[in-house]
Amino acid sequence: SKKILGVRNLHVSFKTYAGVVQAVRGVDFYLEKGETLAIVGESGCGKTVTVKTIMGLLPKEQSIVSGEGVEVNFHNKNLLNLSENEMAEIRGNHISMIFQDPMTSLNPTMKIGNQIAESIVIHENKSEEEAKKIALNILELVNIPNAKERINQYPFELSGGMRQRIMIGIALACDPEILIADEPTTALDVTIQAQIMDLIKKLQDKKNTGVILVTHDLGVVASVADRIQVMYAGEVVERGTTNEIFYSPKHPYTFALLESIPKLSDHKQKELYSLVGTPPDLTNPPKGCPFAARCKYAMKICRVKHPEITSFGETQESSCWLHHEKADLSDVSEILLK
Ligand code: SF4
């Protein structure tokens, strides 16, 4: 099989002063070699917690990972059972991650070239001289102009776009099988965003890297994702190929995400999702559909019973009563008429 990562029945909770927050509630998915999976949803939906769990980056004292048969399977190893040292080895060589703000991941007091070289020496046992040469290659690979001069500059001397390029270069230097990018372009302006996505795509094709792209913005992933999974309130509410999600969405929350994509003709971005209300309190998640309080299609069943999954063909699934055979649609019109 081409599957390189499999996440099964993942639940993650956090202890907070307000109580135990059930941030991720039964998430399943897989990633194949060379493909791009986008995980999309608004902040607090559990997308970042999910990928941090894969990377072993959750704070151990406050977080609880659970679930019957829960697993993060990478080459037949359950990453959840690895020691901190073993996870560090995975992060250095097999699964890399980039974040929203490269300024927080780069050391402000260290020259760019030295930083790249250092990360390579640590991960790959190269001599310092070899590492410097590779660092120069990386800058060229990620299209940094005047690489020979840039290598001696500090992070603050570079633009946000260049810093993110460098982070991508560092993340891909060890030829990881998986790159996880968490809101990699959110801090950047629209033109630069497109260039960064383009760069990720090019390098991914070259190295056949599997990419997990985490974002709140469906628009960003349209041209790069193979598959999309939409998360809401700690659950995957819909998944499908990029075409299915864009041209034949099935879940009302996906409708809202699509509506919120800024169009070139719009002068200002629409109010987030044009949705009323807020996500549910995850210290006490609703018994029925987590989206019911904001859903204009909500039926009686939605408030009392958690939605079952409806499949549409081989690749698309929606966790919603709307298309389910058990749904009583007479109820929908009643509510929409109100
Ligand atoms: Fe809306 Fe009901 Fe579907 Fe939830 S299950 S998204 S409330 S129609």
From TrEMBL:
GO cellular component labels: plasma membrane
Compartments where located: Cell membrane
PROSITE patterns listed in its UniProt record: ABC_TRANSPORTER_1 (PS00211), ABC_TRANSPORTER_2 (PS50893)
Which Gene Ontology terms cover its molecular function?
A: ATP binding; ATP hydrolysis activity
Record bears the keyword rRNA-binding: no
Q: How does it sit in the membrane?
A: Peripheral membrane protein
Keyword ATP-binding: yes or no?
yes
Can you say what this protein is called?
A: ABC transporter ATP-binding protein
